[in-house]
Design goal:
Blueprint lengths: L1 H8 L4 H32 L10
């Protein structure tokens, strides 16, 4: 694990690296949710809403 060795060599602990990666995943999920809402709102504004069940 080269990434873990770099983290230990620079004085950081593995938990710091794990927290950084977890927060990166959280922000990626937030961005995906915002993009999905943007697509839904844009489809609604363009009249592409089929009125089907679900939303």
């Amino acid at each position: 694990m080269l990434l873990a060795e770099i983290a230990f060599a620079s004085g950081h602990r593995l938990i710091d690296l794990a927290a950084f990666l977890a927060l990166g995943l959280v922000w990626t999920l937030i961005a995906a949710l915002l993009y999905a809402e943007y697509r839904i709102i844009r489809a609604r504004a363009q009249g592409d809403w089929d009125g089907g069940a679900g939303l």
